[in-house]
Write a structure and sequence with these properties.
This protein is an alpha+beta fold and 314 residues long. It contains nine helices and seven strands; from the N terminus they run H-H-H-H-H-H-H-H-E-E-E-E-E-E-E-H. The protein has two domains: 206 residues, Dbl Homology Domain, Chain A, CATH 1.20.900.10; 91 residues, Pleckstrin-homology domain (PH domain)/Phosphotyrosine-binding domain (PTB) (PH-domain like). The chain has a seven-stranded antiparallel β-sheet, with helices on one face. Helix 1 runs antiparallel to helix 3. The N and C termini lie far apart (65 Å). The mean pLDDT is 89. Pfam families: RhoGEF, SOS1_NGEF_PH. Its main location: cytoplasm. Keywords: Cytoplasm, Cytoskeleton, Metal-binding, Phosphoprotein, Repeat, Zinc, Zinc-finger.
Length: 314
């Protein structure tokens, strides 16, 4: 007798979950535990570094090993009298939000492994030693760490497939569709959280370069473009080095600070985007020049090239 398609997919979910829990066990119970033990003995790297590398992997491991895998196993054992997994996945979905933290931290974690492997030979040796074990299957720590990052998209694909293959009258239809919707939202949430965090980090870095002027620190701002320009002074036919930050709502016209303590730039002028006009100036003496006029005042600026001028105007 041919197994129904949806059962085949549910079994694949169970099998990949089992393999995934083994991978989490390796990350949390072997890599993390052993590296932490050596860090505590003061032999390899600071404990803080190990914590930063592994982020919240322990919570993720506990959740899958103690809850999700056993629940899924129970469902598959009872399949013949109760063919459903939708309810279990609905219980799983809200917990997947904890992946946001792990995923967000991933690039930093990989960077820390690289940096500390160079700085601390004992750390590098211990990692290499664990990687040689059979359980690692000739793969690096970084490779194993990528697995949780890829797990949520995998759930989404399997569940999509499962819902498509379910017969219309299946008792699991409503639950499975609702579960898919929830997983879809979590996947979106995790990607959006990363993008939002990167935006805020970049924004904060820019505010620090500007000396955190109160009236411009606004978390809803978005940086569109930044870069050096020459300010043309028509009075004495000379140019001076300036720097522009263009946000969605304002243009900051700055001067590089001579003494680099704290801020990198001094904000000289803020022009609101609302009501601002920009046009090219055909000036033979100063090529690539454009005019920015706002309610506050008008600036004659020179870009380094024609392309750069067009980019600013755009």
């Amino acid at each position: 007798v041919q197994e129904p398609e949806e059962k085949r997919i549910a079994l694949e979910l169970l099998e990949t979950e089992q393999a995934y829990v083994n991978r989490l066990h390796l990350l949390d119970q072997i890599f993390y535990t052993e590296l932490m033990k050596e860090a505590k003995n003061g032999k390899t790297v600071p404990e803080e570094v190990v914590k930063m590398i592994f982020s919240n992997i322990s919570s993720i491991y506990q959740f899958h090993a103690k809850f999700f895998l056993p629940e899924l196993q129970k469902r598959m054992d009872d399949w013949s009298c109760n063919p459903r997994i939708g309810d279990v996945i609905q219980k799983l979905a809200p917990f997947l939000k904890m992946y946001g933290e792990y995923v967000k931290n991933f690039d930093k974690a990989v960077e820390l492994i690289t940096v500390w492997s160079e700085k601390s030979p004992p750390f590098q040796e211990l990692v290499a030693d664990i990687q040689k074990r059979k359980v690692c299957a000739n793969l690096t720590l970084q490779h194993h760490m990528l697995e949780p990052v890829q797990r949520i998209p995998r759930y989404e694909l399997l569940l999509k497939d499962y819902v498509q293959k379910l017969p219309p009258e299946s008792p699991d239809r409503d639950d499975a569709e609702k579960a898919l919707e929830m997983i879809f939202l979590v996947a979106k949430h995790s990607n959006a959280a990363i993008a939002e965090m990167e935006r805020l980090q970049n924004l904060w870095a820019i505010y620090q370069r500007l000396g955190l002027e109160d009236d411009i620190v606004d978390p809803s701002n978005e940086l569109i473009k930044e870069g050096p320009v020459q300010k043309i002074s028509t009075r004495n036919n000379s140019t001076s080095e300036k720097y522009l930050f263009l946000f969605n709502n304002m243009l900051l016209y700055c001067a590089p600070k001579v003494i680099q303590v704290g801020a990198e730039f001094q904000v000289h002028l803020r022009i609101d985007v609302d009501g601002m006009k920009v046009r090219e100036l055909k000036d033979t003496q100063f090529p690539h020049t454009f005019l920015v006029s706002g309610k506050q005042r008008t600036l004659e600026l020179q870009a380094r090239s024609g392309e750069e001028m067009s980019a600013w105007i755009k």
